[in-house]
Amino acid sequence: MQPTRVSFSDGSTTGEGEVLLIDREASIVVVDATPFHPVDHTWPDQPGDSGTIRAGDVTLAVGEAVMAAVSDDGALAVGSDIPVKRGGEGWTWLVGHRIDGEIPAEVGVGAAAVLEADADRRAALSRGHSACHLASLALDAALADLWRKEIGTDPLGNPDFEGRANQSSRIVEDGSVDEYRLGKSLRKAGFDSEGFAATLAEREARINEQLATWVASDAESRIDTEGETIIDRRAWRCALPEGEVGFPCGGTHVHALSELGAVSVTLDLSDPQLLVMTTRVTPPRD
Questions:
Q1: Mean pLDDT of the chain
Q2: pLDDT band for position 88 (50/70/90)?
Q3: Burial environment of residue 138 by CB neighbours within 10 A (0 to 12, 13 to 18, 19 or more)
Q4: Among 24, 25, 126, 177, which one has the highest count of C-beta atoms within 10 angstroms of its own C-beta?
Q5: Can you tell me which residues the record assigns to a coiled coil (predicted)?
Q6: What is the DSSP-derived secondary structure letter of residue 8?
Q7: Which CATH number is correct for 121-282, 3.30.980.10, 3.40.50.720, 3.40.190.10, 3.10.450.50?
């Protein structure tokens, strides 16, 4: 068995393949090739795609695509139950399609499958993910003057607050929620937490102004990949006016920033030890 070939990186939401594996107890179907984007089991920021798989006269409802792996001795592990790191020896990495309900007996290994991910949901999650990355870069820029020591930089050369402080990121349809820990270690690294709290509204305004400028540029956004399987590395890249930026990312994205319409963030520091940044996308009307 070979790793699942995936096509979501180029924006595909439809595809065809052959059923390779069925786990009826777990309601999982694995196909040799899929357009479905799976939720990552180690950093589950973007939900997996939903949609349908058609095999013959049977249509299966896919609740969510997930990461899966099968050992050389045939043991299937799904999601957080996978006991090895991605690419670990002795395991083949797959995309599992979690089916809502039971899998009928007439659907078996070797069946030809037609797969279709929910295109509207995919588009909304892609907008949310691209906006999330832009917001993180705008956040770094807006907080750049609050650092008293040199630290690593982000793709635009600003102090990497995102990389230092982010503890969770959750992509939703047309938005995201990111949490940043503002603890003792960040202050020791040179970050002026008190100065940040005193100028929170100003920082938020800076971020939103920067986001408006970037969206108006209609910059190209794309995913570069080193191969066609689920274990090949992928990276998001965007040709911002300041220069092309990019970093490793396994999610899905828009093709151009004009698809975002408008992006805005709100910063919540109700807990002085925890910054919550909520990003919202208002897509353009057709």
A1: 97
A2: confident
A3: buried
A4: 126
A5: none
A6: G
A7: 3.30.980.10
